[in-house]
Amino acid sequence: MRLIEVRLLDGPNLYRLEPVVKLEVAVGRRRTWYGKRDPEPYNLIRLSAAVPAGAQPARIAALAAWVTRLRREHPDGAEGRVLVHRSSDPGFWILSWPWLLGDRAREVAETAFALVERDLPIAKRPRPSGARRRVLERVDERIERATGAGPSWIRDADRRMPVVSISGTNGKTTTTRLTAHILRTAGRRVGATTSDGIVVGDELIEKGDWTGPGGAQSILRRDDLDMAVLETARGGILLRGMGYESNEASVITNVSSDHLDLQGIHTLPELAEVKGVIARVTKPTGTVVLNADDRWVAALAREVRAPVAFFSLEGDRSALVRRHVRKGGRAYVVRDGWIGEAESAAWRRFAPLADVPIALGGIARHNVANALAAAGAARAMGVSIEAVGAGLRSFRPTAEDAPGRLNVFKDDRRIVIVDFAHNEAGITVLLDVAAAMASTAKGSITAIIGTAGDRPDDTLRGLGRIAAQRADRVVIKETLEYLRGRSRASTIGELKAGTREGGWRREIPVFASEVESLEHELDRTGDGPPEVIVLLCHEQRDAVYGLLTLRGFTQVGDHRELAKLVAAP
To answer: Is residue 417 within 8 Å of 547, Cβ to Cβ?
Structure first.
């Protein structure tokens, strides 16, 4: 048996909706996960489920017994039994239990593991004079001396404002920004956290990725805000917990292949289970907003305490949406060219789709979905029909309102789309938009691709494959600040391997940075035919904006101008 990690989770997490100790161990020979990202029902593993004692390996059962005994003999005030969970990594097991004294909790975990490693039986106490008795006496003394601080999560009793939590693979940042914008339009004082930073009102007060518990707590401890809109990432939930006890509303946008093979998460249903934590903690009096078109997200409706509202691009064509509305539930859909809210026989219209800038007249289907999700979140927080409509109409896909998300720049012959897309689903919808623009301009598409190195091989290959199949020219830009343990050669190699799978046989230029790659493409197309250049931009956004301004490009944010770019030729 090998000790993998002891981790103290400070809030709701994958295993429980309270702070717990996570003790992860591996039994048997080292093996690597293999399987399908979208597994068959018989291969599904529910990571949060408790494994019965009879299904646990002997050493895991002994470990759980030792933890139970040490907690009973050295209580820290936390109630709740030890649970055993199965990991999808072969031979990996996880024990979880509540904690209140951090040092003591860690000491109990490490001691229990050491005792099982020494094959010390728990069934009976060793004789007073035996060596095992002396071992236990030393253990007892060490645990009793350990105390430590308690969890840092914010309890409901200490929270000053209602919370909207937003998660998903794609679209969560845009949905967070748009939800906060609608709430501000309705006159609320809003604090928000995103992967770009902490925003209070309209001001970015702290740059960086603040989608973990630290960002949430920095907003929730303020006394000058009415509402919090918190983008909540997978990593924070897995590594630290949510950081606060519950929310009034939650939104899960979708689940697609991204950040897999990290922290033991390998499949789409497992990823949905992680992101579903924000929905499981939604108060029974609140609302959970789920994507009806994503089967793993829609399935979370069975796991929550709060009423569910669905959003759907399929709209009334979705059997799930029709059943839900017929039973009196709410759904956010597009009908007759309007974004609105369906509930029983009622239909409440927010805004014409053509007047919602981020939707590009409906061509940007991912942003239509984000608008529906944000409308659902705002309505869950009590915002009026009129304010939702005003917010949808006034939020633009610009570097100011939505930096790095479908930002469009143009000169007299070229269109440049700057976007954070970093997985297969993201680049697919982005190239859908580029195709519409290229068709209108009667031009070609260049895709400048690249992403962080911690994506699995199949995700990197997927980016390359889709670019090869959809673009007329493919360029690779490196993201050197985000290699995250992978070599440059490996990252480039997997992207190129994906392009070959997509049928690409030509040479692919490689540049060391986003600015360098875009600069080269702008030089190359200086006197040529019309072209749409798509840049997956992750680390040099401000410099890219500066380059485009220097080259005479103008930003397009008005919905009428955006509509012209995707109008039928």
So the answer is: no
Q: Which of 98-102, 317-321, 538-542 has the lowest mean pLDDT?
A: 538-542
User: What is the Cα–Cα distance from 469 to 477, expressed in whole angstroms?
Assistant: 18
Question: With helix as H, strand as E and coil as C, how does 438-459 read?
Answer: HHHHCCEEEEEECCCCCCCHHH
For 342, the 3-state DSSP assignment is: strand
Per-residue tokens: 537:
């931009």
Q: Which helix (H) or strand (E) holds 416?
A: strand 414-419
Sign of CA dihedral 433, 434, 435, 439: positive
**245, 154 Cβ separation under 8 angstroms:** yes
Whether pLDDT at 259 is above 70: no
Residues 387, 377: Cα–Cα separation, whole Å: 13
What's the CA gap between 253 and 374, in Å, rounded? 10
Residues paired with 445 in a beta bridge: 532
Query: How much is the pTM?
Result: 0.90
The DSSP annotation for 290-333 comes to EETTSHHHHGGGGG-SS-EEEE-SSGGG-HHHHHHHHTT-EEEE
d(CA 9, CA 495): 35
Cβ-contact 276, 165 below 8 angstroms: no
Angle at 453 between CA 14 and CA 459, to 5 degrees: 70
DSSP 355: G
Amino acid at 219: I
Predicted pLDDT of residue 124: 55
CB 290 within 8 A of CB 263: no
Label the pairing between strands 83-86 and 92-98.
antiparallel
**Residue from 105, 81, 77 nearest 10 by CA:** 105
pLDDT at position 32, please?
Answer: 80
